[in-house]
Design brief:
373 residues, alpha/beta, TIM Barrel, 2 domains, 4-stranded mixed beta sheet, 4-stranded parallel beta sheet, 11 strands, 45% helix, globular, binds ligand V47
Length: 373
Amino acid sequence: MLTIEKKLSLASDKNLFPIIDKVLEGKRLSFEDGITLFNTKDLNTLGTLANYITEQKNGKYAYFVINRQINPTNVCSLECKFCAFATIDKNDPKAYEMSIEEILSKVKHAIENGASEVHIVGGLHPDWSFEDYLNIIKHIRLNFPSIHIKAFTAVEIDYLSKLSGLSYKEVLLTLKEAGLDSLPGGGAEIFSPRARRIIAPEKIGWKKYLEIHKTAHRLGLHSTTTMLYGHIETIEERVDHILKIREAQDETEGFTCFIPLAYQPENNELEINEHTSGIDDLKTIAVSRLLLDNVPHIKAYWVMIGEKIAQISLNFGADDLDGTVMEEKIAHFAGAKSPTAQQKEKLVRLIKEAGKIPVERDTLYNPIKIYDE
Ligand code: V47
C-alpha cells in the first residue's frame, strides 16, 4: 500500500510540495500557505492532505447530532444584505414571533424525536426585553432538564448586553445560570471590515464577535464558529478570517468546531445570484481543516452545501454533518435546495458510504451511539 507520503508525492501542483512537508511534519501553516491552497487546481492532493489531518484527529469517525433548530422570531432591527430570513417590519406578512408555549412545544417535539440538542437563534426584536430572551432559556430548562440548549449568537449576546446594561460576562453568566449550555457560531459572516461594511453594516465587528466567544469560553461555555463565504469576499479575506479564529482558539480553546456556511443567493439584497460551486465548497472545507490545526472538528453543513457535497466533504477534511435540524428556515428563505430536515438513517447512510464510521454525538462530541457494525 502507498504511504501518505507516496500518495502525496503524486501531487500535480508543485507549489503544494512545501505545504505537504509542513503538514506531514506537524508544522503550522501560514497565511501564504492558505492562499496557495485556495488557488490550487490539485483538488485531490488538497483533499488527501485534509483527510490525513482529519483522520489523525478523529480517526475514521464522522459525527452527527439529533437536533432541532428553533428561530423564536424573524423580526430584526439589523438589515443585513445577505439575509432573507429577517424582516425589520413587524407588520410584514412574513414577520412572526413565537410564544413561550410554541417554543416549548417545539422542544417537546424535538425530545420525542430523540434530540439531545436544541439550537436557538433569531432576530434582534426591537420590542423584546432581556427578560423575554432570558425566559426562553429559563422555561426550556424548567420543563426539559436534560436537553442541551445551544442558543443565541454573539450578535444576540451583544444586543442583550445593550438591552440590560450588563457586560458580556454578566449576560453570559445570567444565561448560563438560567440553563444555557453553549453558544452557536452564527453572526461571524466574514470578519473583513471592508466586506462587512457592505453585507452587514450594522452588525458587531469581528473583535466583539470573538471577544464574546472568548468570554463564554472563560466561563466554561463551549461554542462553535462560522464563516459565510461565496459572496463578495476575497480569498485573502477568507484566509484572514480563518486565521483570526485560530488565534482566538490559541487563547481560550473553547471552539468545538468550525462551520463554513455557503452563501444562499435568493430573496436578499445582495446582487450575487450564484450558489457556490462544489469545488469551492470542498476547497473551503479542506483549507479550513488544514489551517485550523487547533479546532477539533470541521462541520459540513448539508443544509447549505447539499447532501451530495457534504457527503464527499467527509473525505476532504470534514468529520461532522451537523444534524437532523428538523425545521430549517434561514437558508431556505434564501433559496437552499436541500430538505428542511433530515432523517437520522440518511445521515448514517451518507457517512457509511463515505467510508467513515457514523457516530451520533451530543453537542460536545461525546459519542451517544457508534454505528460500527
Ligand atoms: O448567522 C444568513 C447565515 C447563519 C444566509 O453553530 C446565511 O453549529 C447563507 O450560524 N446564505 C445562521 N448563510 C446559521 C448558523 C449555523 C448553522 C448550522 C450550525 C451552526 C452551529 C450554525 O446563517 C447566520 C448567517 O451567517 N446566513 N443568511 C444566506 N443567505
